[in-house]
C-alpha cells in the first residue's frame, strides 16, 4: 500500500470518527502532561525567542493536539508571569499526512486555542510525512508528537519469500507465529524510519530545542511478538480469518495485508537515538495506559466485571476502527467493515476477561545538541 495516500484517521465527527474515538490517545497524552509542559518551558528558556515555534506532528482530526498545544502555551505563559517577563508569540504548526481531515482541526481552533488579549497565537496546517523535511532549517523550538510514530513510512520490505509469497500468512502484524525474517524486516523498517525522522528534526530544530515523542511500544525486555504488544492486531486478524472461512473473501486477502506499524521497545528507541547522534536523551521510559488510568479503579467481580471489560472492548474496537479503517477499506471492501468490527469487539471482550485492558507506550524527551562550529 502507498501509506502516504491510504493512511488517515477517520475524519468528521460521526460515530466511527477519530474525533469521537480517540479517548485512549487523550489519556496517553494526559499521563505525560507535566513532563511535556516542563520540557516546553525549558525549550523556551534555552533561547527566550520572541516567537515560540511549536510543531505538533500527527495532529489528526480531533481536539487532542489542540488541547496539548493549549497546555504548552499555558505553561510557558505561567513561567513568564513568574519571571516577570512578557510572553512570546506562539506559532503552532499542525502536521499530518495530506489525506488528514484538516478542516475538522481548523473548525476547532477558535474553541481550543482561544486567544486572550495578552496571547498572540497563530496556527497553520502543514500537510506531509514527518519522515521527510517539513520545516526550514533551525526554525523549531519545540516538537511534540503523541500516538503517531508507531506508524511506519511503508510496509516493511522483505516480508515475502523468493517466489513473492507472503511469509506472515494469516496475520496482519507480528505474532507468536511470525517468522524471524518478518521480525527482522519490521525492526529494520522502524530503525530506518526513526533514524530518518530524527535526522530531519535535527535539521529543523534550534540548538537546545526540545522534542517529546509518545508512541505505542513495549516494556523493557518485552519481545516484539509478545501478546501484550500485538494482541489488538492478532484479534483483528482472527476476525478476518473467521470471515474467510465463511466465504466473505479469499484467505489470500488476509495473507497479503501487512500493517505499516511497529511498537518498539525502550532499548530499541535508545539504540536509534544514540546512533543518530544529534540528540541527548532527557527522559526515556515505558508506561501503561488504559481507559481507567486516570482514576486507577477497577469494577467488581462477576457480571459487573464482565460489563466493565465489555465497555473497554467496545471502546478499543471503535478506536482501532477509527485509526485503521482507511487501510482495511483500501485492501478489503468497505461494506464488510461493520461485520469485521462487530466480530473484533466480541474477541476483545473475551481477551479482556483474562487480561488487563491496557496498552504500553514509550515516551522519550530529547534535547537538540549544539551544532559543531565550522
Task: Considering the chains and any ligands shown, give keywords for the structure.
374 residues; Rossmann fold; 7-stranded mixed sheet; 11 helices; alpha/beta; 7 strands; MeTrfase_capping
Low-confidence stretches: 293-300
Percent helix range: 40-55%
H and E string? HHHEHEHEEHEHHHEHHE
Q: Strand share of the residues?
A: 15-25%
Determine the CATH superfamily: Vaccinia Virus protein VP39
Biggest sheet strand order reads: 3-2-1-4-5-7-6
Question: How does the helix and strand content classify structurally?
Answer: alpha/beta
CATH class descriptor: Alpha Beta
Describe this protein's structure:
Its EC number is 2.1.1.141. This is Jasmonic acid carboxyl methyltransferase. The chain has 374 residues and is of the alpha/beta class. The protein has a single domain, classed as Rossmann fold. 44% of the residues lie in helices and 17% in strands. It has helices at 3-6, 23-31, 33-47, 64-83, 102-112, 180-204, 227-245, 251-255, 266-276, 302-331, 337-352, and strands spanning 51-57, 89-96, 121-127, 140-146, 205-216, 279-289, 359-368. Helix 3 (33-47) crosses helix 4 (64-83), helix 6 packs across helix 9 and helix 7 (227-245) crosses helix 11 (337-352). The longest helix is centred in the last third of the chain and has 30 residues, at 302-331. The termini are far apart.
